[in-house]
Every structure is written in C-alpha cells, then in structure tokens.
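Progress note, sequence design subtask.
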C-alpha cells in the first residue's frame, strides 16, 4: 500500500544548455522500464499562454519583465490545474522540465524581487518533492546550444551568468545540485540514485 495518496513531483531546473531536457527524458525512460507510471511535462507548457510566451520570446524586448512574469504565472497555473494535479491524483510520478524556480532565476535576473516571485508562485503551485538543479557555466551551456535555434529574449551569456547564480543560491533538503559538466550517463546515474531512494521510501518501486 502507498504511504500517501498522491504521486511524486520531480523537477529539473538549470540554465539553457544544462541538459535538463535530456536528463528528464532519460529518467522517464528508466522509470517506465521499472514499471513506474511516470509522465513528462514541460514549462512553458502547451497552453495558450505557453504558446504566447514562445511567440513573444522570438522578438527581442517585446515583453517587460513584469509581463513575462505574468505570462509564466498564467501558463503555470493552467499547467498545475490541467496536467500536474490530475497526474498526481492518479498516483503518477511527474517529471517536470522547469518550474517556478526558473521564474525566480530568469525573471529575478531581470530585476524582479525574488521573494515576490516566490510568493506569487506559491499561491498557485503544488510543492515539488525533489528539485534537481543542473549546474553549468553559462558559456559552456550556450556552446552546447550553438546548433539549435536560439530565442533572442533568453539566451545571452551575461544574463545567464545571473540566472545561474540564482539557481545556485537555492538551498533546502529537497534541492539537489548537480555538476552538469559531467557526461550524461554519470549525471543520469546520480539523478536516478536519488529518485529511486525516494520512490522506494514511498513504496513506488521495489527495493533493488
Ligand atoms: P525551455 O522551453 O525550457 O527552453 P529549452 O528547452 O531550450 O531549455 O524554456 C524557454 C525559455 O523560457 C528558457 O530560456 C527559460 C525561459 N523561462 C523563463 O524565463 N521563466 C520561466 O518561468 C520558465 C518556465 C522558462
């Protein structure tokens, strides 16, 4: 029997190019192979707000930091209500690629007060169980993205240096900071170890 009647929310965070999406997919695949019911979700999401964010992000300076914050909050609220809560109610493990720590880091790096961002988010979110912060130097992160289409709004080295500092400042027992410079198999094993230990405690997976 499960020790509680909700699923588990696992968040991956990090600057652009930190590899969180790759790690989220590797983790999903592994958990599914262990027959854990796991789903992958992403923010910005597929909602109309998420689409507006992506469209506006392609045009430099089209949004003020406050407008960005507002859009990310609207997108998140919808994602929490429509996707995250229903999955958790079904006892699923949700692997979430970015959450409100991204808003604190990215919109915070544009000058919005961090505690204000936290407060506005904590009014609408479900608290996560584990938060992995993939840490990489801004230049190295950007170098990894060189071949990908870049959006003008978000991907600048000096900006990402500030974003990274905010990510690095998060402390607490459910934050796990990971050196994302290492190779992806090593990082995967490190994440998996923590996740399996956590899920075993909750009887989501059999002890190895
Ligand atoms: P994302 O889709 O994760 O980009 P990628 O897959 O290339 O890493 O996120 C797009 C951008 O949105 C990214 O640069 C970070 C930014 N962002 C914020 O500024 N605030 C937020 O709250 C979130 C969720 C993302």
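Output:
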């Amino acid at each position: 029997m499960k020790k509680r009647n909700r699923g588990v929310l696992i968040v991956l965070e990090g600057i652009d190019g930190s590899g969180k999406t790759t790690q989220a997919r590797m983790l999903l695949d592994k958990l599914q192979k262990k027959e854990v019911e796991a789903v992958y979700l992403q923010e910005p999401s597929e909602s109309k707000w998420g689409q507006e964010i992506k469209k506006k992000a392609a045009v430099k300076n089209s949004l003020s930091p406050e407008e960005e914050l507002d859009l990310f909050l609207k997108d998140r609220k919808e994602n929490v209500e429509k996707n995250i809560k229903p999955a958790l109610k079904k006892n699923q493990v949700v692997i979430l690629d970015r959450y409100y720590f991204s808003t604190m880091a990215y919109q915070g790096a544009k000058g919005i007060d961090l505690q204000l961002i936290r407060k506005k988010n904590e009014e609408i979110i479900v608290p996560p169980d584990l938060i992995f912060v993939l840490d990489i130097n801004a230049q190295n992160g950007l170098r990894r993205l060189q071949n990908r289409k870049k959006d003008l709004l978000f991907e600048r080295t000096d900006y990402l240096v500030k974003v990274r500092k905010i990510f690095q400042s998060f402390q607490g027992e459910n934050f796990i900071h990971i050196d994302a410079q290492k190779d992806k198999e090593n990082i995967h094993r490190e994440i998996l170890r923590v996740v399996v230990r956590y899920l075993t405690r909750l009887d989501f997976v059999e002890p190895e």
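Residues 79 and 88 are 12 Å apart (CA to CA). Work on this subtask will continue into the next period as scheduled.
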